[in-house]
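The protein record passed on for reference:
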Amino acid sequence: MALRADDIIDRRRLRRKLTFWRVATLIAAAIAIAIFGYWAFGDAVPGTGRNHIAQVSIEGTIVEDEELIDRLERIGKADAVKGVILTIDSPGGTTAGGEAIFEAVRSLAEKKPVTAQVGTLAASAGYMIASATDHIVARKSSIVGSIGVLVQYPDLTGLMEKLGIGLESIKSSPLKAEPSPFNPTTEPERQMIRAMILDSYDWFVGLVTERRPLSREEVLALADGSVFTGRQALKLKLVDAVGGEDVAIEWLKEQGVDPDLEVIEWKKKGSGNFLFAQSIMRAIASAIGLPSSGADLIRDLGGDRIFLDGLLSLWQPDTAARRD
């Protein structure tokens, strides 16, 4: 009986070892596939070896995006790229992010003809980026505009009083770390923030005046935060044409670009291989009983906007008004 019990224990140990090595082998294979895919194809965009029109999607909340800027630089250096279409669908974002991408687009436009094709929305920093191109096309029902800057911060003083929470601070000067959500905003604090906003607003108006066939007075009349449909924006000279990709290609034709060239999207570097590897890892995680991450869902629901820092150039519907 003792020998038989030892055999059963040995078999159980062997099964555990086999299970461990099977899982380890699957994980190692997934990592190897991801590394090889990135090494072999990470810098390459299929089809870009032949002459083509490059298309770049700029979507969602605008932030400082070094990968996007690098991609625009690579497009500018690619001899096979004869023209560029920026497909924009964004409510805006940080002014610093919009400024960085604006400058990258202007640098690209010095090398290639660049046009913007607006989808649903190009507002605030999204419109700022569109204005960096030499031609803007929007759908008749697209939302365009919202030229302006804002700063938002919560007031938690009422909640703190209800919870019985107090906050003490020792500062080098009254305006240090102000405005703060933990105490009422004073008039000097409002003046400081307003001066900063107006300076950035003046800069934004200057960009639009420089890039659009409008005088500064005409831009100021439009730069009250208003949004416009594509048809309205055309009349106001905020866009150059209404339509879709075909209209953008027609403009590129006028710039000497062959309209029969294939339009190829330059996607985020290594994104396809990353998603493939991510799918494998999720399948493995599911197989061994590990939970998958919910970060993607949070981002898709717009949770990334909660953590934006700095001056914003962002358009958003007035949800409070809809509730009343």
